[in-house]
Amino acid sequence: MKQEYTTTRDFYKSFKGILDEYAEDAKEDVEKVTLEVTKQCRKDVRQRAKSQQGRAKGGVSWSGYIKGWNYRKAKLPKYMSGASVYHVYNQSKPGLVHLLEFGHEVYNQYGKTRGTAGAYPHVMPAEAQAKRELMQKVKEVL
Question: Which residues lie closer than 8 Å to 58 by C-beta, 6 or more apart?
């Protein structure tokens, strides 16, 4: 049965209800996709760190570092309350991430530079891949 609208107000209310329902469904779908991509990004960072472990000199154990990767939902200000943002971070050794990703200088016991430690990029490639994947999946969902 075809619904007929008597006034523009009735049409507006019906149309607004349809749009609100669509927005709620879209929000849930984007939240689900974002969480899925976040979990994949964490897994990818772990995998990339594990592959870089063999290149490291000196027999340094990376096991605690690799296992320390986790994610959490971001705490956002009120004006961003509808957004779904997650952070992938290293819980066990947070200060080590920057040093491994970009390299650093190595000092001896007297404070003199002995050389540099090489960079093992493993976070930025995973982040770039996660961004591409998220955009693709959100487009599919919507």
Answer: none
pLDDT at 44 (0 to 100): 96
For the chain, the average pLDDT equals: 87
Task: Confirm whether 113 is domain-assigned.
Answer: yes
Reference 92, options 53, 56, 63; nearest CA is: 63
Measured CA to CA, the distance from residue 63 to residue 72 in angstroms comes to 21
Q: Is residue 130 part of a domain?
A: yes
Question: Is residue 3 one of the residues assigned to a domain?
Answer: no
Q: What are φ and ψ of residue 57, in 5° steps?
A: -95, 160
Number of domains composing the chain: 1
From the number of C-beta atoms within 10 Å of its C-beta (0-12, 13-18, 19+), residue 19 rates as exposed
Q: Is residue 2 part of a domain?
A: no
Cα separations (Å) of 71 from 34, 44, 52, 87? 12, 13, 21, 5
pLDDT the model gives residue 16: 87
Range of the domain at 18: 8-141
Helices and strands in the chain: count of H runs, count of E runs: 4, 4
pLDDT at site 5? 56
